[in-house]
Amino acid sequence: MPSYSDAYKFVILHYYRIGVLLSEDMASKRERLLEKARMGVSEAYSSADHFIIQAVNAYNEIEKTRNLIYERLEEWYAIHFPEVKLQNHDTFARLITVMKSINDVTEEQLTAILGDKGAELYAILKEKNQGSMSDDEYSALKDLANSELTLSSLQESLDRYIKTETERFMPNVSYLIDYKIAAELLSKAGSLSRLATMPSGTIQLLGAEKALFKHMKFGSRPPKYGLLYKMPIITNASMRDRGRIARSYATKISIAARADAYTKRFIADKLKESLDKTLGRTRSGNSGSHE
Q1: Which residue ranges of the chain lie beneath pLDDT 70?
Q2: Interval 195-224: pLDDT, tens
Q3: Structural domain boundaries in the chain
Q4: Which fold has domain 171-286?
Q5: Which pTM value belongs to this model?
Q6: Alpha-carbon distance 274 to 251, whole Å?
Q7: Among candidate residues 174, 206, 175, 197, the one with its CA nearest the CA of residue 261
């Protein structure tokens, strides 16, 4: 007959085995649920609108990085060549990659990079004969300039992708406005289906969230437009017309987004014709009020 201690050990061992089995079952169940969740997230974000969102966000982040690199290059290079003032990022970076000092470059090389200004700059620098830097310093500066050129090439590649995919995925919206602005609206909305369900007033203010929050918290003037301000027709319009033009565009974009998301019919040409008539009345009304 087994002793009390033997029975106790048996019970303990039995429940230990059950616990191990339960823990293994829970672990496998947890892993299955995690895998299911991963597949669900992957499937949810596998549509084209999320690819466009990632691409346009990457494009904008590269743009910010390029601006920072350009500012650093400009400030650094000006220590040795204060006469060099170029607005184009790529042109400035290419100049740095070939000119350590004026004695290392020819007039033809500068002309090939700068055009007509090349000969003028060559004459100025040759006369002053300044701009000496060590090999190590120039190597670091040249590497920074090459990184700007690499980012520029990457940005161009992203731009081509954004244009192709946005015009394919959002043909109506990208017909009415620039494809890049259309992609940024999509990014702000989160998806095409969300953009399609937004009222025109919300679309008009996409990208102006900070200004809207400031208005709601501090009572400042409410914003009249967000990302749509990037459109030349709004940027170049008078202050009194910008809000009206943005509102007209937002109304048509709302309709176009619904067509892109649901019906898949191309109606942008008719929307553009109607929009042009509306904008024409806006301009004629303003010109009449000034007479």
Answers
A1: 1-46, 129-131, 283-291
A2: 999 999 999 998 887 877 877 877 778 788
A3: 48-159, 171-286
A4: Serum Albumin; Chain A, Domain 1 (1.10.246)
A5: 0.77
A6: 11
A7: 197
